[in-house]
Amino acid sequence: MPLDRLDDPDHPTYGMGQAADLLGVPPAFLRSLDAAGLLSPSRSEGGHRRYSRNQLDRVAALRGLADDGHTLASASEILDLRASLDEARDERDDARRERDTAREERDTAREERDEARRVAE
Asked: Which residues constitute the signal peptide according to the record (predicted)?
């Protein structure tokens, strides 16, 4: 296994037992998330579930919301909406940066134009 996979948060690194131990949940909880379609772990060649760090983060967040009284389905929807909101905020921030850069370029071009006019007079 190339070492760069160790840095990939989407690489399916953890088996069910490891994932359950890290999260402090029973393996049945992880199986129930898979059965409900709320989490789709990769499968090893032998058919065993394999989880990525991003999936473990999602399970921890699902568990936290479930502990706060949400159903797993609503917790999943909340996480999806949060991800969509984060993506929209990133797009907004990118658009603002592009706008600010364009304004700076416009202002620089105007200054250069005005300077060229002054020199030409």
From this structure: none
